[in-house]
């Protein structure tokens, strides 16, 4: 029994190693450009080990998008547990997405696969829909809490926020290899908040803008500002 | 002499045919995924005809990005000639980018190539920089004209606007194959304008939001609204 458990643990580790290696290859070479040969080479494994876990490149790609999905759901739930006003949680959401993109190769590979597959057919939209749905629910709560002007339509607002974030990170990737992403997301809220927060709550804008998830590492832009509290 | 001119005209037409065919292939299969073989097949030409004009796939891709660049410069100049306030020209700029993406396969191919090449190294950033620089100049003029709050930093604002537009179109692509792009760009300005236009100009927001370039076809969202005037 113990030998079986040990074998299973090794299989789980090998699978994770394949997925990490594949993510790096997909991120650099794209879904179409990445070959199973290169993925095997980058993961430092044999063909047999890979085929034991995955039947095809498509199955690997699907697994990466599913892991990206799971990561986003986990962080969305973590943000939901924060004791912060909903408008601050929306700001946290964007900084958390930025953090994942910068630090998690599986998230970056998932984004690249999603974009590539959605160019000619309906691609995997789940990760976008997760963030949009969460943002929509937070927007509804923020309206009730008086932090978002009541004439804002939550579904359209959520779609805009996730869209704006997505492109802010794309332009940061093209122009600065994402090194300025944290600063650019902060800019986004600087331009957006005055128009969506009711006038009587404008004194709170600075606090809202600086909101970060407790779980997330301290953001560079925050380090230059006085501590919250 | 007349025969030479005729031959030249035919060469120009063949070249344009190759570029259009290549753009469609790059858009669907990406830079890495597209082979010269498929490009030749899609363009309905011989290998010899292609190699007479282009030495490699890279040269073709470079040509498409350059054409995208030329298209964006031409439309930026056309918008610059409009007799509209600068803030309206910024709105026009976004709707013009949307129109080009929906209607011009060379622009779509250029975007895909840019994104793909910028994933592992510094990709061609020119098309983004064109729009950002134009938007920055318009933002400076809009501040002077009193339509943009003076504490807005034009370079950061321009980068945000082009970034937000970029992602709004990405999410529209993933979720709706870009069929709702015009409406989503209109949403973007609905959420953004109240926070960036000084309070005393708020009565103008509706007019600013409806601004469209005269050269551009009437937008769907405009068709539901009373005519400008």
Automatic annotation (TrEMBL), chains A, B:
Transmembrane stretches, start-end: none
Keywords: DNA-binding, Transcription, Transcription regulation
Start-end of DNA-binding region: 35-54
Domain HTH tetR-type: start-end pairs: 12-72
PANTHER family, per the entry: HTH-TYPE TRANSCRIPTIONAL REGULATOR BETI (PTHR30055:SF234), HTH-TYPE TRANSCRIPTIONAL REGULATOR RUTR (PTHR30055)
Name of the featured protein: ScbR family autoregulator-binding transcription factor
Source organism phylogeny: Bacteria, Bacillati, Actinomycetota, Actinomycetes, Mycobacteriales
């Amino acid at each position: 029994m113990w030998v079986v458990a040990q074998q299973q643990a090794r299989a789980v580790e090998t699978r994770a190693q394949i997925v990490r290696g594949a993510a790096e290859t997909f991120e650099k070479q794209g879904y179409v450009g990445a070959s199973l040969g290169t993925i095997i080479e980058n993961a430092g494994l044999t063909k047999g080990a890979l085929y034991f876990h995955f039947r095809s490149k498509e199955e690997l790609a699907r697994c990466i998008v599913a892991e990206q999905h799971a990561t986003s759901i986990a962080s969305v739930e973590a943000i939901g547990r924060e004791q912060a006003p909903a408008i601050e949680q929306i700001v946290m959401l964007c900084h958390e997405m930025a953090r994942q993109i910068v630090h998690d190769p599986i998230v970056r590979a998932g984004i690249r696969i999603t974009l590539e597959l959605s160019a000619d057919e309906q691609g995997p939209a789940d990760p976008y829909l997760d963030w949009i749905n969460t943002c929509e629910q937070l927007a509804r709560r923020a309206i009730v809490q008086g932090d978002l002007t009541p004439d804002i339509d939550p579904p359209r607002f959520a779609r805009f926020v996730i869209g704006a974030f997505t492109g802010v990170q794309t332009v940061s990737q093209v122009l600065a290899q994402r090194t300025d992403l944290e600063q650019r997301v902060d800019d986004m809220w600087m331009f957006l908040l005055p128009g969506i927060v009711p006038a009587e709550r404008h004194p709170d804008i600075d606090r809202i803008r600086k909101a970060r998830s407790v779980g997330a590492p301290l953001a560079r832009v925050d380090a230059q500002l006085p501590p919250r509290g």
